[in-house]
Amino acid sequence: MTEPNTTELQPLPDDWQRALAVVAHPDDLEYGCSAAVAAWTDAGREVAYVLATSGEAGIDTLDPATCGRLREREQRASAAVVGVTAVEFLGHRDGVIEYGPALRRDIAAAIRRHRPELVITLNHRDTWGGVAWNTPDHVAVGRATLDAASDAGNRWIFPELAEQGLQSWNGVRWVAVAGSSRPTHAVDARPGLERAVYSLLEHRTYIEALTDQDPEAYARAFLTSNAEATGERFGGTPAVAFELFSR
Ligand SMILES: [Zn+2]
């Protein structure tokens, strides 16, 4: 039996200017780390979002074509609340994203376009803390993002990208994984928490399909309780946790 990890989390490095968040679905960032994003954009840092899919298979009562358009719109609104205006969709198919060279190439291309020092992604492991099974989309995109941080810097891996004018970028210094069951670092959630609630609320159609609770009460309770739980390992400060991989 493994003991619960109670090691204190370290502050996430803040000597960087550009971050790129790469996740599978609209709402993946809002369910965890948008409070950190709000604090970063407040500080004048640039953050861009790349979504592998448009989340078109996410709502049972909506056909994918309608749902994808709606969720892209909600994602753009949600990003704007925390100061993010660059939002891109890679057009992979929701629910059946395949891990492999095509996905790594698309993410490496995004990294070359945005040239971030910090890359953010979502839990790439099989489970959420060993208690709930993760989705194959999160696993595929998380793993491919960790890989693409290196792919982006190697001009021989996807030479076709350079032919499209995307020169290699070997400047990614860290990949920070949100929602990991093995977090190492954290960011103070307090300055951005209220905007994180409103950012999550922009996914209103999705939330209303998910729960009968009042959407705002649902969003606030979810984000606050997560931030407080992380705070137990961050000096009592409500926080957003990340597992940090340095390069
Ligand atoms: Zn997701």
UniProtKB/TrEMBL annotation:
Keywords: Zinc. GO terms for biological process: glycoside metabolic process. The keyword Transit peptide does not apply. It comes from the Bacteria. InterPro entries: GlcNAc_PI_deacetylase-related, LmbE-like_dom_sf. GO terms for molecular function: hydrolase activity, acting on carbon-nitrogen (but not peptide) bonds, in linear amides. This is PIG-L family deacetylase. It comes from Streptomyces pluripotens.
